[in-house]
Amino acid sequence: MRSTKIFNNSAVAVITPSGQEAIVLGNGIGFRKRPGDEIDDSKIQKVYYVQDVMQRKFLQMLKDVQPRVMDAAERIIAMAEENGCTMSSQATISLIDHISFAIERQNNGLALPNLLLHETKLLYRKEYELGRRSLAMIQDCCGVTLPEDEAGYIAMHIISISVDQNAAYDVLKFVKAALDIIKQTYGIVLDHESIDAMRLITHLKFLAQRMFQNHSWEDEGMENMYEMLLDRHPQNRLCLERLDGYCQNAFGYTLNLQEKFYLLVHLTKIF
To answer: What is the pTM for the complete model shown?
Structure first.
């Protein structure tokens, strides 16, 4: 295939043998190339066919992306795929754009606090670790040190590969709100690194996933145990009422007795 436009050393627009417009990425694929030159197929790592508005936006975006940003993105994508996260065209486009904008913000002294960073670290440890390693790659390729908040943002891009990104955000939002309700109701500081707290957080994550999929958890024959656990702490009833109220108001979901029971099991371990 022949090139039609050289964006940088790692990105080239081409026309395929079938006559389709595409963008190909690969280390050194555009090095010393000019429009009309043959492209070395062995260097092609990614192919994006320009079929819709999103792909054309990608084409326009690449014009302004520095080669070193592309290099960093390629390393991050390779790392993610080595860890079982195959990135789609959409996720790749979004990641490249985010890195470019994050570097621009950092160079201009504009901070973008990640209000869900702590929850991302707790709920998506693998993806957060990949995000943290991504910052080192960006530093190496671009010479820019991004704050830890960006590790959380990059983790969200990686998370979006396997789940809908809006759903992942809603899970984080729910867990953060639920933990705030629990801490405020019982008037305590929760040790997020303790085993019991981590189990509670994991349970809240799975509860959120069931809630957003509208799958309630049915398990009969626990009414007596529920009442017994409910009476173990004077704030238990209030905490469940607040959690249930939040679920109803924010997501239109009502916690059933079984879900309240398992919440009490975890809360009892902590209090």
So the answer is: 0.62
